[in-house]
Amino acid sequence: IASTTNTDFYLMDELLTEEERTIRQKVRHFCDTEVIPIINDYWERAAFPFELIPKLAQLKLAGGSIKGYGCPGMSTVAAGLIGLELARGDASICTFYGVHSGLAMSSIAMLGSEEQKQRWLPAMARMEKIGAFGLTEPNHGSDAVALETRAQRDGDSYMLNGSKRWIGNASFADVVIIWARDDDGKVGGFLVEKGTPGFEPTVMKGKVAKRAVWQADITLTNVRIPAENRLAHSHSFKDTSSVLTATRSGVAWEAVGHAVAAYEIALKYAQERVQFGKTLVNFQIIQDKLAKMLANVTSMQLLSLRLGQLQEEGKMTAAMASLAKMNNARLAREVVADAREMLGGNGILLEYHIARHHADIEAVFTYEGTDTIQSLIVGREITGVQAFSSR
Ligand code: FAD
């Protein structure tokens, strides 16, 4: 009987372009050779592997589908596959890259002036400058629309005051986009450069997911920045949301990467582990679990591919992105939990790699909009009723 260890069960690769397949292979190879062999140690110590930044830069992927300004200008599917493969390797690296290339660079590409794009995007594409995206506040997560950080106009400057929480890369980033409310109560994105007085990031401690990437608490005390540092086309929270919709599809791809990794780890383990005189794959319940895991992986892959195509064609709506993020993060969480269980006691040892995915998927389930918030965005689309407004 033929057996398969292939996670591309419906031959999705045949639907990809040569460029997309090449990019996917490049990232997969990078993760297999550079990331997976070293990452558990960093994860355990809650240290960030700075040594990987120049290696990641050499792949020339940052900026993904952004056209021009030294960015690769690849298809959105190719950009999604990068997220999938990085997450299959390690979620912390995926988040570091996603915050930089997705949230920060997309904000500048989508909302920046020509000068802002020229100034930041080429250096960020080379990863000589690293970006961060500061939206969430201690008192405003899901209701980020109610953010309280202020940007007061003062002559040729803005003065920023407030606080942010959970901001990835912010403790070492060269530029952090701080979302704040101006004198008219409108939300804008403000480029705060490293070392600006009054900008104080502190790395958050005690995280039990994505331990190898750092998020920061930030206090902003009379942070004075030039008025031209406001992202030129950011005039309201709708502009912020447009960036989040674009990057949310990336999180849907990322979830697939966790499920692929979990399935691969579980299958290999079940093929080798002997109990009751037979390898685990001989038992019906194990086969049933593997079949369901593969079904989830396959449906997530196809959903993401179609979402990527719609995004490329400019047809992806906020609800489409939310449905994919909700669906994939939920399914990935199930697949990862089944895999962890299939490894028995070894499933909680870092050495077998599944424990890291098991912890990390919890962050994916929650960030860039929680599972509940995604379902409420889809619910709004279905019913025409907004069920999560504060009014
Ligand atoms: P809350 O909003 O307090 O939610 C708590 C619970 O209440 C959730 O289960 C939620 O679904 C539920 N809930 C909230 N409102 C409703 C409602 N109306 N109806 C029903 N249930 C509701 N933010 C950034 O700006 N930049 C970053 O780089 C960044 N990186 C992150 C990295 C990690 C690892 C994590 C964990 C978070 C990061 N975040 C970042 C923040 C992230 O986006 C928020 O954690 C997320 O939006 C949820 O906000 P919260 O944690 O404050 O939860």
UniProtKB/TrEMBL annotation:
A GO BP annotation: fatty acid beta-oxidation
PROSITE patterns, per the entry: ACYL_COA_DH_2
Domain Acyl-CoA dehydrogenase/oxidase C-terminal: 240-382
Domain Acyl-CoA dehydrogenase/oxidase N-terminal stretches: 17-128
GO molecular function per UniProt: acyl-CoA dehydrogenase activity; flavin adenine dinucleotide binding
Top-level taxonomic group: Bacteria
Annotated ranges, domain Acyl-CoA oxidase/dehydrogenase middle: 132-223
InterPro entries in UniProt: ACX4-like (IPR045008), Acyl-CoA_DH_CS (IPR006089), Acyl-CoA_Oxase/DH_mid-dom (IPR006091), Acyl-CoA_Oxase/DH_mid-dom_sf (IPR046373), AcylCo_DH-like_C (IPR036250), AcylCo_DH/oxidase_C (IPR009075), AcylCoA_DH/ox_N (IPR013786), AcylCoA_DH/ox_N_sf (IPR037069)
Keywords, comma-separated and alphabetical: FAD, Flavoprotein, Oxidoreductase
Pfam families xrefs: Acyl-CoA_dh_1, Acyl-CoA_dh_M, Acyl-CoA_dh_N
Xref: SUPFAM superfamilies: Acyl-CoA dehydrogenase C-terminal domain-like (SSF47203), Acyl-CoA dehydrogenase NM domain-like (SSF56645)
Keyword Ligase: no
Cofactor dependence: FAD
PANTHER family: ACYL-COA DEHYDROGENASE, ACYL-COENZYME A OXIDASE
Family membership: Belongs to the acyl-CoA dehydrogenase family.
UniProt protein name: Acyl-CoA dehydrogenase
Source organism per UniProt: Dictyobacter alpinus
